[in-house]
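1st attempt posting a full record on here, be nice pls
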Amino acid sequence: MPNIVKLKRIIKEIFIKRGLNSNHSKECAEAIINAELVGAHSHGLSRLKMYCKRIDKKLINPKPKIKIKKISNSVSLIDADNSIGFISANLGIKQAIKNAKKSGIGFVGIKNSSHYGLSAFYAEKAVKKNLIAMIFTNAPPAVAPHGASKSLFGTNPICFAAPFGNKAPFILDTSISKINRGKIRLAEKNNQKIPVDVALDMYGKPTTDPKKALNGVQLPIAEFRGSGLAWMVDILSGVITGAHHAGRVKDPFDDFTGPQNVGHLFFVFKPNLFVKNYKKRIKENIRIIKKLPKIKNVKEIFYPGENRFNIYKKNLKKNIQIKKNINKDLEELLA
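the predicted structure (as tokens):
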């Protein structure tokens, strides 16, 4: 039998030991294990020690008094009170879904939060309710604005999700950098190199050394376009919510001078606001694209989220592989 249930229980116990209540600890465990199951190991168990360290240093509040301010039937603002990001984001998507079910549109901003793992984890909750979701969150400095030599924007992921009947939902969850920062940290932890052309060292030279990349600059997708998207996300999740922005979000691994104050933005809406035959139209859209002529060595055209869903189903039947250093972290955190 897969070790998923046991791992969730261990993670839950680790968070309870640090003052989180049972429900909040369970939510954290669910999000971390989900990252492992979809193959996003950079956002799973490898980050557990960091979350615990920030709680221990009182930079994440284990017993937050989260406030939800109703602005209209569609719009809400959440003050997360420096909670762990899993909790505030879970509350945020639930509120956005609630608003959307009432008025057709749910628009929720969050401030005073922290890293929340994978955006797709929350987007999936919306598509399960037959809703479309767009999710944004800012992050610590990693990418230089176009024309600048110093990093300021985060890798600032953009997530879009749409329901597709009883099949794998369409979910695009991507950072604006060529590689997400978590993968670089994971490479450093495992003494591995990173791909070429994804980062520069502190002197502006290309590097495959993850440590030099973390101290240097990550490269955005599509040059100035990627930089522009990062800026857009910084405005959406930082400027308009009241969270940190313009390079002020603190690095969760390296900066212990204060809470992160990450901002998140959830935009959820009913897919039939403009047309009544959404289900038929989305099926037609995907069917047409998947039937296009394929380039050499490509057997099938996958839509975003399809591979993720297949990996998840496959991994549900297997044990989650735990590296020695991660197992050591678990033992230390339980002690």
